[in-house]
């Protein structure tokens, strides 16, 4: 019961942060990281919630200094020639309509880095078409430092709120994003 209350309280507070940020910041767009990519991978899933993301192959947009790559995940981890990709431990997948299609997309908190190093962490948007094709929507709030990580994500009327923690300073910041078909996720 305590976790259910906490989840609702976190969702409500992220919604309030998003609304207050939208009012305070207005529609100022910043170039998004990671334009849309369509993965060659198709799934039998007809809905984004039907995909076993921890055991799927899809294009991951830029995460920190890791370039976009098609990654096959097994039990939440995957590798390319020189990079390790994994789902951030304990992070939940967030679902919502971020592209205005009336269908849900997924926001995944992923980590990436060279083997035996610190990993950068970013929120990656993905979608599944009605015919089961997985496509990348881009990266939400990509940071170049492994010390600044997304710790919470919420979707409010299609906009995305991300709460970041800076491990170097112990400070938290909130950023807000909106999806643009041409630019991916742009900061608002």
TrEMBL record:
Name this protein carries in UniProt: Uncharacterized protein
Keywords for the protein's UniProt record, in alphabetical order: Signal
Source taxonomy: Bacteria, Bacillati, Actinomycetota, Actinomycetes, Pseudonocardiales
Signal peptide: 1-31
């Amino acid at each position: 019961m305590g976790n259910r209350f906490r989840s609702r309280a976190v969702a409500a507070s992220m919604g309030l942060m998003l609304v207050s940020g939208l009012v305070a910041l207005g529609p100022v767009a910043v170039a998004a990281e990671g334009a849309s990519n369509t993965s060659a991978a198709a799934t039998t899933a007809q809905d984004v919630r039907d995909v076993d993301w921890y055991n799927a192959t899809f294009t991951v947009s830029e995460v920190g200094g890791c370039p976009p790559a098609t990654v096959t995940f097994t039990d939440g981890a995957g590798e390319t020639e020189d990079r390790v990709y994994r789902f951030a431990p304990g992070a939940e997948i967030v679902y919502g309509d971020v592209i205005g299609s009336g269908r849900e997309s997924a926001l995944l908190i992923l980590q990436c880095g060279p083997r035996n190093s610190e990993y950068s962490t970013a929120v990656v948007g993905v979608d599944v078409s009605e015919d089961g094709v997985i496509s990348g929507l881009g990266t939400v709030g990509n940071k170049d430092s492994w010390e600044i990580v997304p710790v919470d994500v919420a979707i409010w009327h299609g906009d995305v709120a991300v709460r970041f923690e800076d491990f170097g300073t112990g400070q938290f910041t909130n950023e807000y994003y909106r999806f643009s078909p041409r630019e991916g996720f742009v900061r608002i």
